[in-house]
Design brief:
54% helix; globular; two-stranded parallel ribbon; Rossmann fold; mainly alpha; three-stranded mixed sheet; 6 helices
Length: 136
């Protein structure tokens, strides 16, 4: 999938996310960094995007308990620390799925399963939670 196709897929999935979607606070930081570094947006525009996401979706906070869980995940599963924080925060918030290209799809921790939204065919668990598309 080329960059344009990935962007289009991401926008389609975002448009289909249910209202009760929760976003780990670290994902907002990654969004800011990607918009500035890869998409060439100004810091002000990246800030506006982060604030829009914050207003649209519930945010999973990084608590001391999340940090403790993240260190456990990082040690037990040899996962990068900040990835572990996102997984621990998602699980703490009761998320069933964590969408990421960076993790092993299907890995589950604390009731949260990792799903890669960029695979050619959407994982059935992701398809089940997305709002239907208007396409025929």
């Amino acid at each position: 999938m080329n960059g344009r196709e990935q962007r289009d897929r991401a926008l389609e999935i975002i448009a289909r996310l249910p209202a009760e979607t929760t976003v780990p606070v670290q994902a907002l930081g990654e969004l800011f960094a990607i918009l500035v570094k890869k998409a060439g947006k100004s810091r002000a525009k990246a800030r506006d995007a982060v604030l829009a996401w914050r207003e649209t979706f519930a945010i999973a906070d990084t608590t001391p308990e999340v940090i403790t869980s993240a260190t456990d995940i990082a040690v037990a599963h040899r996962m990068a620390f900040w990835d572990s924080v996102m997984l621990a925060a998602s699980a703490s918030a009761g998320a069933r799925l964590l969408l990421s290209e960076d993790f092993q799809e299907g890995f589950t921790w604390g009731g949260t399963m990792i799903v890669n939204p960029m695979r050619p065919r959407l994982h059935p668990a992701l398809e089940a939670v997305l709002k239907p598309t208007d396409r025929l």
